[in-house]
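Pasting as-is:
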Amino acid sequence: MKVLIVGTGYVGLVTGTCLAETGATVYCIDINEQKIENLNKGILPIYEPGLDQLVERNVEKGRLFFTTRMQEVIQDSDVIFIAVGTPPGEDGSADLQYVVSVARDIGKYLQDYTVVVTKSTVPVGTARKVKAAVQEELGKRGSDLKFDVASNPEFLKEGNAIDDFMKPDRIVAGIESEQAEKVLSRLYKPFVLNGHPLIFMDITSSEMTKYAANSMLATKISFINDIANLCEIVGADINNVRKGIGSDARIGHKFIYPGVGYGGSCFPKDVQALVKTAKEYNYEMRILEAVEAVNKSQKQVLTQKIRKHFKDSLKGKKLAIWGLSFKPGTDDMREAPSLTLIEDMLEAGVEVTAYDPVSMHEAKELYLGDTITYAKDMYEAVIGADALALVTEWNEFRIPNYKVLSRLMNDKVLFDGRNIFEPEEVREYGFVYYGIGR
């Protein structure tokens, strides 16, 4: 099969590469000439474990190509995925200008029947807009060419995206015709041979499924964070509570780990977009509004603990931060809790030194510039520090050498934003320990 992927960001690049791995001929298209030039040199725009080797292998096998020119490769395509960005507007709504622009280009250049698939996370009703845009451009050409529009939301976890795509929990596809179902069934056949379900439904339900899934996961995170804060007040241990409730199969153990709030490109944007969609239909998503409020507050939980420990006397203090990305396994810093903490600390006159295994370049280039100091490793970050804050639970932070920390730090205070350390062990080395809900 011949597949076109428009957009070479996180979703587009992972989707295109994994489809090529199953034997499809895939063309990844982007208007950013520098990005395409880099991809053709093997330089990826994102960090995702294992993706670089997968890209290299499929390029060498002649199954994966990168180009800026849709018009030259669109002929005979079976499926065209729209995987461009949908950044949130100030009101929380998804900006669809790039999605519609791609749809118009498809209408300008389409030569044969194909299935046009929205892969970007888009609000309910987007497929109708895509269909109208393609149809309008075909009309301008005087063409009655047949095509189908489908919705195929992604459920990829950054840091584990390749496994998620190759071994999906489920594949959701919203369709309008038997022909579209036939095409997508063939495309996804290699991924459902082991029993993973390919669920066909109407397009509107498919669009809603993506938002509902991410909003449910965000709800679990904000819920456990709210419970953790109450545990801290009443003297309970959230780790015990988490184990107690997680043993109930109806609740489960996943996404009930307390911390400093969720971030990234999906949960914040999708919760806001679903709340905005509801308002457009005169409905109030009261739970999700609370989820968002709790998360915003939770991102400042370390700030509050640091202020309390130092009795609001922060000016001139030195804080070491371990972890900048919003989660381990990615360099993505969009909506990362570390950004909130750093902003609060800089405003209070604190000198910040940070270390992250993969995202420091991202931090320096896109977010923080030279406002903080970047260490070459986790121990350099703590030299002369009055306190250490663990924000992102990378594996390399899990078993630190407390003797080395004791020797390097000015004062032995540890703020554990992910509850990855054992309080008793930390205190044995003379540290003051603060966790979340403990």
